Amino acid sequence: MTTETFEFQVEARQLLQLMIHSVYSNKDVFLRELVSNASDALDKLRLEKLRDDSLDADVSDLHIEIDVDKEARTLTVRDNGIGMSYDEVGRLIGTIANSGTAAFLQELREAQEGGGAEGLIGQFGVGFYSGFMVADEVTLVTRRAGEDQGTRWSSRGEATYTLEKVDDAPQGTSVTLHLKPADPENQLHDYTSEWTIREIVKRYSDFITWPIRMVPADHDGDGAPAPETLNSMKALWARSRDEVSDDEYHELYKHISHDWREPLETIRLQAEGTFEYQSLLFIPAHAPHDLFTRDFKRGVQLYVKRVFIMDDCEALLPPYLRFVKGVVDAQDLSLNVSREILQQDRHIRMMQRRLTKKVLSTVKDLMTKDAERYATFWREFGTVLKEGLVTDPDNRDALLAVASFATTHSEDEPTTLAGYVERMKDGQDAVYYITGESRQSIENSPHLEAFRAKGIEVLLLTDPVDEVWADAVGEYEGKKLRSVTKGEIDLDGEGEEKAGEEREKQAEEYAGLLGWMREQLDEDIKEVRLSTRLTVSPACVVSDAHDLTPALENMYRAMGQEVPRTKRILELNPGHPLVKGLNQAYNDRADRSELAESAELLHALAVLAEGGQPKDPAKFVRAVSERLERTL
Known about the structure:
By secondary structure, the chain is α+β, with helices and mostly antiparallel strands. The protein is built from 20 helices and 23 strands. The strands form four sheets. It has a nine-stranded mixed β-sheet with strand order 1-6-5-4-7-3-2-8-9, covered by helices on one side. Strands 16-15-18-17-20-19 form a six-stranded mixed β-sheet.
């Protein structure tokens, strides 16, 4: 058969170099990765055979086999699972097809410097490459179930790999590691040692539902030695809590998620009665790189009577809990259930409701009992959880109860909505918030000036979803949620008649200027009015109470939706010298062309102050430059 040589994709080559030349504190991860891949292949074959009985594949004794050759210094992990075709080997082994690869490689380099890189190896489906930590050469032989011809892949972890079609490959996949020379000073990590192999399998892969077998080198009696099963194959979710250690739970999580860091929280749920199921769910400690990408695989593993049915069962949890990993084992579903059937199944909907409530109640417990771990959770997953405030009105109250937000009340400590309401001023009837790209940009917003002057707290919301959920929720415990950048704001409160009289007087004084500016800026604004929210800045732009904000308009356009451009409102600070000067010039019938330019500049400055951009940046710069020249 012809052997072809190919070059690794750039990202794959970079990853290989990191694997080969880095020094990890625990190289044992390569074996649990290869065993985990083999287990996945067995699951896939059983599922495919279940759905297609005509598939020409032997499923009578599905298992994983580990073979060690001390003299040749090779270690082989073999399975009789689904296998791969020639094209699949080239696509899956020669490249890393993931949109977040660059970010992953950067994090891997940073973790390597900090000594925590082994915790990242399983992510992005790159666990296969971890074999190069202990091997000078890796050979893979595979044949896809139902096909006649197999494939041999080989590489020394450099720039290239070879592919060859073979006729004698058994069903499944075998990965042979040509191990690096032995280290006399590190016998504990001698991967030709049966004792070492047994310890690694027991520690990391005991729960895997397929037998992991090894033929011992030393045996008594004549004939071929009998293979020994190294793992117990006990489903952790079916055992009582007292029978399972936290370490065992953590290893199951790592096997399911390919995240080799420990989970933040483990959640057990057992439902009995008319519809029985067991679930074992995990909240990760870190958000995956691709959490917000379209290709992110969400959902938990579904089993029926301990038979694996599918990965990433989306019907069991809502999209805003897509970061949750785990297993659900139902007793009363068909083994031949499809994703389409699951979407309509009444029992599945019941399970989703129960599992969702359990996850949210667990987060609530974290909030009340472990502030540090809750802070970690919200930092990693708060943004995605807030999607549920829009999409899941049934659980909106539970979501609001576990949400926290940055606030002007504290530079470091976020607040809950309940905490905000407790601190509200006498007579305050709304929960105020402002949205923007970053805390720094919105803390300096002119829209906050009156709130800061009167000591009124404002929530600082910086996630894109905040624009949507705040509008959808509308209120909290009878208190309206109000954007400080929308509508008219009156912070005077009761008994401040003097302020009201002053505003009436100012309205009369500025009536002419306001009307004239409205005409001059007609293309960009629908109203000019005096502001009650400004104390320092000369002007700001605000949206009408029921209009879309510019950020929301941009969001909808980015999603391909046609949104008409909304004119906004320009508010002037009647106490600012610049505004007073404009009014005086207007009343003195100053040159209207120069006054019109001043009005345009004032509007552009207001747009800049909220993080926007003038309609014509070049014209704005030219006008400012000319004004500066005239002052020198």
